[in-house]
Specification:
Helices cover about 50% and strands about 10% of the residues. By secondary structure, the chain is α+β, with helices and mostly antiparallel strands. The strands form 4 sheets. It has a 5-stranded antiparallel sheet with strand order 10-9-8-7-11. β4 (about 255) and β5 (about 265-270) form a beta hairpin.
Length: about 700
């Protein structure tokens, strides 16, 4: 019964949302409304006296009746009505499952009495809205309905119904069933789970789950879980031994796992029969919630069922559901692949973390988006109710892809760990961090790959222990028969992981191989020499050699000695060296922070100037071009300043012949030389600007 005042308030979004939460918040108080049994117990305990407790109002949602006083009154009227018709409950016979599901009504509801039932709202079991609206009508029924005759008839009706149910249960209890082995139990379950759930529920021991309704609820959730996850029970592979023992477990217990994918679901021998284990019965509600998170299983009852119309084994709506699922997964991937980089990278760049945003966060985003898209597909796929073989195929594929992409995410996240370690090392100013951090990063990545591979093998039902044992036995013979092949294979792994060189790099080895790497294969590396021939070097041999990688050079060195004659005056020589340094500074492709240009030696026939510089280029052709430019500039500078280059000669100087000029040419004054010097660099600068 919803009053007009309540309807007006509920039309306001904020107040309506608050009122929706109030019943859930109220359940956290003294009244325990977590299950049908707890709600009925609280109902009788809170209304045991003419003056009920205030908590009795919590049995009716505020969404149905706003006034607490009115809710208490309705609860008391309902109690009086039930007492008048002689309704009483045995608490232990009521379901205590918070997620109790009435398969007949296909809802989270529990019928107490005709027209009176509880319904789950949020996490609380309250009287349903339909029940609340009918309470005044029930109380106002003619007094004849409450006479002793009517009460007797109702009692007889209830007794007859209970007697019929007891007789049915007794007949089922006496039906001979074969549960003598895992094979017999699973065969019995598969034959009766749909056509006779009451009979199929006998695979659950009554000593483990006393109440029939609880056993039926567990059985129904088990059926949906196995179908939703695509678990195929192949009876041909189920042991028919009454004394079967699981030799893979400690102490070889009498248990049999129904599927390798879910080790918690297994049969256990009790006495002479094989039942669904007590642990499994307790775990099924939790597994069911994991298979249908957020209560999405309620959608199943709204899906169409038409066994007569099928195309290639599927109903038309299932094809539409597959298409919708693919579109949702794709849109989820595209959205996350766009929104995460947009938010994270933009935030990190605002914080000044450009290196972290561009080099580390970006590569992690895509596999995370794929991981979440496949997770969405795994959650929604059970709703399609596909044939179990199709569901099994997709389930196994998704269960393999999810750990694969999770491994990729964690693998790439190790770069973030190494970046953090690098930050700590810089803060601590350690001297060995450059060698230690790359090693730690590789070890962590290798460990992640191993863990991911173990999970994938586990999902493929491959026993890792047996695999390692087989490798240890067969590996010895394989190693002896194919030593070189294995050595080359591991050499390939070393090259691929350590990356001493890549395709396109110019390398030289200690064996005298000199050329450009063309391809790094799994057995050998192809190197094209400068004679245009190709050499194939086994990777095992190449990984043991010292490799000089010229392709990783950032700068290319240019070292030479400029020899000038001994008759060059010191001032001219000093000015010439200054000009050489200025040539290096003004050249656009030289390293400015590291070069050496000094008068270095006094040779037999010359003064030697060390000219030691670096060109900022990784390419050999560009290095030759820059050398040419630098040497031509040196020659022009020497010609401008009158500096002569020395060469090995022997000269006999006759300086003092009477009436003749000295052989040594005279030099101009310093101020004129300085003018020529400035003019040279001014003209050189003008030529450079014109070239630009």
């Amino acid at each position: 019964m919803i009053t007009n005042k309540a309807r007006q308030i509920l039309q306001k979004p904020v107040l309506g949302a608050i009122l929706l939460l109030l019943p859930i918040l109220a359940s956290a108080q003294n009244a325990d409304l977590s299950s049908p049994r707890s709600a009925v117990r609280s109902f009788y305990e809170l209304t045991h006296s003419p003056k009920p407790k205030r908590e009795a109002a919590k049995l009716i949602s505020m969404m149905h009746v706003l006034s607490r006083k009115e809710r208490i009154s309705l609860v008391m009227q309902l109690r009086q009505y039930l007492d008048s018709v002689g309704v009483a409950f045995v608490y232990d016979s009521l379901p205590d499952d918070p997620d109790y599901y009435d398969s007949a009504r296909q809802a989270n509801e529990f019928v107490l009495y005709p027209n009176i039932y509880l319904k789950k709202y949020g996490t609380s079991w309250l009287f349903a809205r339909e029940t609340v609206e009918k309470i005044p009508a029930l109380v106002k029924q003619p007094q004849a309905d409450t006479t002793e005759t009517a009460a007797t008839e109702k009692e007889q009706t209830i007794e007859a119904r209970n007697r019929a149910r007891s007789e049915q249960l007794e007949r089922i209890a006496h039906v001979p069933v074969d549960l003598s082995s895992p094979y017999a139990t699973l065969k019995f379950y598969l034959e009766n789970k749909e056509k006779n759930p009451l009979l199929a529920s006998r695979i659950i021991s009554s000593s483990d789950v006393p109440h029939l309704d609880d056993r039926l609820d567990i059985l129904e959730k088990l059926n949906r879980f196995l179908e939703g996850k695509g678990v195929i029970i192949d009876l041909d592979n189920v042991p028919d031994d009454p004394d079967y023992r699981d030799t893979t477990k400690a102490n070889n217990p009498h248990i049999y796992e129904i599927t390798y994918r879910f080790a918690d679901i297994y049969l256990e021998k009790q006495g002479s029969n094989w039942y669904l284990s007590k642990t499994t019965a307790e775990r099924i509600p939790e597994l069911y919630r994991q298979a249908f998170p957020l209560g999405i299983d309620w959608l199943i009852k709204y899906l169409p069922v038409d066994e007569g119309k099928r195309i290639l084994g599927l109903q038309p709506w299932q094809y539409l559901g597959i298409l919708v699922l693919i579109i949702l997964a794709y849109l989820t991937f595209r959205f996350l692949n766009w929104i995460m980089p947009y938010l994270l990278i933009r935030l990190l760049r605002k914080l000044g973390k450009h290196r972290l945003a561009d080099n580390y966060v970006g590569p992690i985003v895509r596999p995370i988006a794929l991981l979440l898209a496949f997770f969405l597909a795994e959650v929604l796929m059970p709703l399609l109710q596909l044939p179990i073989k199709v569901t099994a195929l997709f389930s196994v594929a998704i269960e393999i892809l999810i750990p694969v992409f999770a491994t990729i995410v964690v693998y790439r996240s190790m770069d973030l760990v190494s970046l953090y370690l690098e930050y700590l090392s810089q803060k601590a100013r350690t001297s060995y961090s450059d060698q230690l951090i790359p090693l730690v990063r590789k070890i962590l990545k290798g460990f992640v790959v191993i863990i991911g591979a173990v999970y994938v093998l586990k999902n493929l039902n491959i026993d890792v222990k047996l695999l390692l044992g087989g490798l240890s036995v067969g590996g010895l013979a394989l190693a002896l028969a194919a030593q070189d092949t294995i050595k080359n294979f591991f050499g390939s792994l070393v090259i691929l992981i350590d990356k001493p060189f890549q395709s396109g790099h110019w390398i030289t080895t200690t064996d005298g191989i000199d050329g450009t790497v063309e391809e790094v294969g799994m057995r050998s590396t192809r190197i094209r020499t400068f004679a245009n021939s190709v050499i194939s070097v086994p990777n095992g041999k190449l990984s043991d050699q010292a490799v000089n990688n010229y392709g990783l050079r950032v700068y290319r060195r240019f070292k030479t000695h400029i020899a000038v004659t001994y008759d060059t005056p010191p001032d001219v020589l000093e000015l010439f060296i200054e000009g050489l340094r200025k040539l290096v500074v003004e050249h656009p492709h030289t390293r400015k922070d590291f070069h050496h240009i000094y008068l270095n030696e006094m040779g037999d026939h010359s003064l030697n100037i060390l000219f030691y510089i670096f060109f900022a280029t990784p390419k050999y052709a560009e290095e030759l071009q820059y050398r040419h430019e630098m040497i031509m500039n040196i020659i022009r500078l020497a010609d401008t300043l009158g500096v002569r280059f020395a060469f090995p000669t022997q000269t006999l100087h006759m300086e003092t012949f009477p009436g003749q000029q000295p052989l040594t040419p005279p030099h101009e004054p310093d101020d004129k030389l300085r003018q020529k010097f400035d003019k040279f660099f001014a003209e050189k600068g003008g030529n450079a600007d014109a070239g630009k």
